[in-house]
Specification:
This protein is of the alpha+beta class. Helix content is about 15%, strand content about 40%.
């Protein structure tokens, strides 16, 4: 039976969205998702997102399969796309907030009057046990720790934003051979559940440049949770303030780490590309 889908992207980080409100389990298997995401033999995407019924008082549940069939806890760009997709399904055009259940916890995206989406990403988790990583003791933070990858010692900071991130500050993000070292970070034995990896260039205290290797997806044009994690790492290392613009290959995200409630707020776009059936 053909399944309807809508293709969205958040700054070039692209997803296939499926209306899954009639069932509590995804309509596709992880193996199906791999085929759908194939850019030569399928639709092409970084992942497939399912809009499922809510749980525990939430409006909806988000499930996502990466293009390798793995399932991440959460996706920042993906949840902005999901919010736009749900609003279209419901016929909502005014500012509106949704409570979304994810494997990484409760996330609240809000459609703004200007068409952007602001997402309450929750509080960052910083202990080694939360990442998880064996870089230091489970109850310690991983800030500016040494990690050897590809014959080079990198200084890394780790943050969990519903999914795990390893952040390294560099002089020039364009010079990083991400194609060759990204997977070596992702699969490093100090990260038992693998890791998303961000390389950050500090342009100013309120402006960061970022390139990312996403766990299960590889190089992507943007990563919302990664942008949040990178800003947190910048604050922890004294490299940036709590209101920053993050420049990704696909565009700009605005990130705030509120001192009032310790929560991260991410604002950015989500755009519909096309609809179809498969």
């Amino acid at each position: 039976m053909a399944i309807a889908f809508t293709k969205y992207h958040g700054l070039g980080n692209d997803f296939i969205l499926i209306d899954n409100r009639a069932a509590t389990e995804p309509r596709l298997t992880p193996e199906d998702a791999v085929q759908w995401c194939d850019r030569h033999f399928g639709i092409g995407a970084d992942g497939v997102i399912f809009a499922l019924p809510g749980q525990n008082g939430t409006d909806y549940t988000m499930r996502i399969f990466n293009n390798d069939g793995s399932e991440p806890e959460m996706c920042g760009n993906g949840i902005r796309c999901l919010a736009k997709f749900i609003a279209e399904l419901e016929g909502i055009t005014e500012p509106h907030a949704y409570k979304i259940h994810t494997l990484g916890g409760l996330i609240t995206p809000k459609l703004e009057a200007d068409g952007l989406i602001t997402v309450d990403m929750g509080e960052p988790r910083l202990l080694a046990a939360d990442i998880p990583t064996t870089l230091t003791a489970p109850t310690e933070k991983v800030v500016n720790q040494s990690l050897e990858v590809a014959g080079t010692t990198w200084q890394v900071t780790c943050v969990n934003m519903g999914n795990p991130h390893c952040i390294t500050f560099v002089d020039d993000v364009a010079a990083i051979p991400l194609e060759t070292i990204g997977s070596q970070f992702e699969c490093h034995p100090v990260f038992p559940k693998k890791i998303n990896t961000e390389f950050i260039q500090v342009v100013r205290s309120d402006y960061l440049k970022m390139r990312v290797w996403e766990r299960g997806a590889g190089i992507t044009l943007a990563c919302g949770t990664g942008a949040c994690a990178s800003m947190v790492a910048g604050v922890l290392n004294g490299k940036c303030g709590r209101h920053v613009t993050v420049e990704l290959p696909g565009g700009l995200l605005q990130i705030e780490w509120s001192e009032a409630d310790n929560r991260l707020y991410m604002t950015g776009p989500a755009e519909k590309a096309f609809t179809g059936t498969r």
